[in-house]
């Protein structure tokens, strides 16, 4: 039973894959990825149903049929217009070539008459076309200089010259067109220019097929280039998505590595600074010892010792005097406030005595002088 269900599941997966591939092939111009169809199966089914009614460009079958008919009609009208236009351009080129030859060499009278008749006929036909641009319109066209087509047709060359032109024109036109075709053949394959006229004519008969083949090849390459462009855009999008995932993963790795290595780095920096501080302290102690050795010699040390001993003895004597004074003060404090008044009076009298002694001394010195 499980084997049957597994085979059914596999077949359903295969059908889903083929359906997605068919949808992607039916709508090559739409920017749809296979992941979008996988995540939205109902949308994939809708596109598959829609592909049965529209083509790859999004047109319905009836509209595509009408468009093909309109394009065929347009192509036929374009061919007719191109035929007449190319014939008109060819005649104008023949007239220009004749004018150039006439200025550089002597032209036979009959040929000169032929091209003059052709030029006048073209000018008259062009003027008639300007006077009556459309034979299908029902609106009145404004006249130019008050002329009508009948008046312009009177300027045509004589019937005799026109008949001669019509007899000679196909041969001259054939020569001119053959010359242009040979120029096109030489442009297409420059190495064929030095070959004989018969071989050129043979290759010229196959030139249209070659050009058509080159055109189809160019269109095929253009279509392939467009498909490759769409494929490249999809692959670029996928590549950018994968690249962003890789960048995010790399950023997480860098952050984890940085946090893990930061503790070791801080510890090493702390050890380095501790060692540097210890070195600086040792250097300071060394400098202090050197300064002391340079400052305090043996004589200065012995003198300092004597001074210290004398100061110590004086300090001991001062301490002893201080203690005796403090004992006297303590004995005086026992007598109370009355003695304090007597002590203040005694101090005042002493100060007055000192002041009078100083004044007497100064007075005596002034009298001696």
From TrEMBL:
Domain of life of the organism encoding this protein: Eukaryota
GO cellular component, one term: HAUS complex
Alphabetical list of InterPro entries matching this protein: HAUS4, HAUS4_met
Transmembrane segments: none
Example GO biological process: centrosome cycle
GO molecular function: microtubule minus-end binding
PANTHER family in alphabetical order: AUGMIN SUBUNIT 4 FAMILY MEMBER (PTHR16219), HAUS AUGMIN-LIKE COMPLEX SUBUNIT 4 (PTHR16219:SF1)
Entry protein name: HAUS augmin-like complex, subunit 4
Organism: Sparus aurata (Gilthead sea bream)
């Amino acid at each position: 039973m499980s084997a049957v269900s597994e085979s059914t599941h596999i077949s359903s997966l295969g059908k889903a894959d083929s359906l997605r591939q068919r949808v992607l092939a039916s709508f090559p111009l739409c920017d749809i990825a296979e992941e979008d169809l996988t995540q939205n199966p109902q949308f994939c089914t809708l596109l598959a149903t829609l592909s049965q009614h529209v083509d790859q460009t999004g047109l319905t079958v009836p509209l595509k049929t009408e468009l093909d008919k309109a394009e065929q009609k347009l192509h036929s009208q374009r061919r007719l217009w191109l035929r007449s236009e190319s014939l008109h351009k060819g005649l104008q080129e023949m007239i220009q070539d004749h004018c150039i030859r006439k200025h550089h060499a002597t032209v036979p009278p009959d040929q000169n008459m032929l091209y003059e008749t052709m030029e006048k006929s073209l000018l008259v036909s062009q003027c008639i076309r300007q006077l009556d641009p459309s034979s299908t319109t029902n609106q009145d066209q404004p006249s130019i200089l008050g002329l009508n087509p009948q008046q312009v047709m009177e300027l045509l060359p004589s019937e005799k010259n026109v008949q001669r032109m019509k007899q000679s024109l196909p041969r001259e036109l054939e020569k001119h067109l053959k010359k242009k075709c040979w120029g096109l053949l030489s442009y297409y394959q420059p190495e064929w220019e030095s070959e004989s006229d018969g071989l050129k004519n043979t290759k010229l008969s196959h030139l249209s097929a070659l050009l058509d083949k080159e055109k189809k090849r160019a269109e095929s390459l253009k279509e392939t280039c467009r498909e490759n462009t769409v494929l490249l855009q999809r692959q670029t999008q996928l590549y950018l998505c994968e690249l962003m995932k890789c960048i995010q993963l790399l950023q997480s790795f860098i952050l984890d590595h940085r946090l893990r290595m930061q503790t070791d780095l801080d510890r090493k920096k702390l050890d380095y600074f501790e060692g540097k501080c210890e070195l600086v302290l040792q250097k300071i102690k060394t400098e202090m010892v050197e300064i002391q050795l340079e400052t305090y010699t043996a004589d200065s040390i012995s003198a300092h010792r004597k001074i210290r001993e004398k100061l110590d003895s004086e300090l001991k004597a001062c301490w002893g005097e201080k203690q005796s004074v403090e004992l006297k003060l303590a004995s005086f404090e026992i007598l109370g406030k009355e003695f304090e008044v007597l002590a203040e009076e005694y101090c005042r009298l002493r100060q007055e005595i000192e002041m009078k002694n100083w004044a007497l001394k100064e007075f005596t010195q002034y009298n001696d002088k």
